[in-house]
Write a structure and sequence with these properties.
With 140 residues, the protein is mostly beta strands. The protein contains one helix and 13 strands; from the N terminus they run αβββββββββββββ. Helix content is 4%, strand content 46%. The strands form three sheets. A six-stranded antiparallel β-sheet has the order 1-2-5-12-7-10, with no helix packed on it. A five-stranded antiparallel β-sheet has the order 9-8-11-6-13, with no helix packed on it. The two termini are 22 Å apart.
């Protein structure tokens, strides 16, 4: 079943949960110390419909979450072999409620979102650019 906002923004299901679409990729490439070549940065829309969450995962680059609509609880679970003790912050636009409009997930840190009562749309910028080759998902 397609979500109306996913349809309007031409989003596809994401492996971790939710919906996404890459909206930009830097034309400038960088060669990383291990020889991987990536764009210097990439940007996506990421939609989490009400009641949905994303699975624990990590990427090999820093990720910036930027609130667009609604809010999402972003949990970080450390950089061990599996997620550990968590910290959380709410990414959203209600500053009076303590939400932050931007949040950074450091490279190699486990992250997930938890369900909320309303749809949440964020943009996620990854630098060096995102590749599914650099993506690790915790098996259920």
């Amino acid at each position: 079943m397609t979500h109306p906002l996913a349809e309007a923004l031409d989003l596809q299901p994401h492996r971790e949960g939710g919906w996404y679409r890459r909206t930009w990729e830097s034309p400038v490439q960088v060669t990383l110390p291990d020889g991987r070549v990536r764009p210097t940065a990439t940007l996506i829309y990421f939609l989490l419909p009400a009641g949905q969450s994303s699975a624990w995962h990590k990427v090999a680059s820093d990720e910036l979450w930027i609130a667009q609509r609604g809010s999402v609880v972003l949990e970080l679970g450390g950089d061990g072999d599996l997620p550990g003790e968590t910290t959380a912050q709410v990414v959203g636009l209600d500053l009076a409620a303590g939400q932050v409009p931007q949040a950074r997930v450091p490279a190699g840190v486990w992250q997930r979102t938890v369900p909320s009562e309303a749809d949440a749309l964020v943009s996620c910028m990854v630098s060096p650019g995102f590749s599914f080759d650099d993506f690790e998902l915790v098996s259920p």
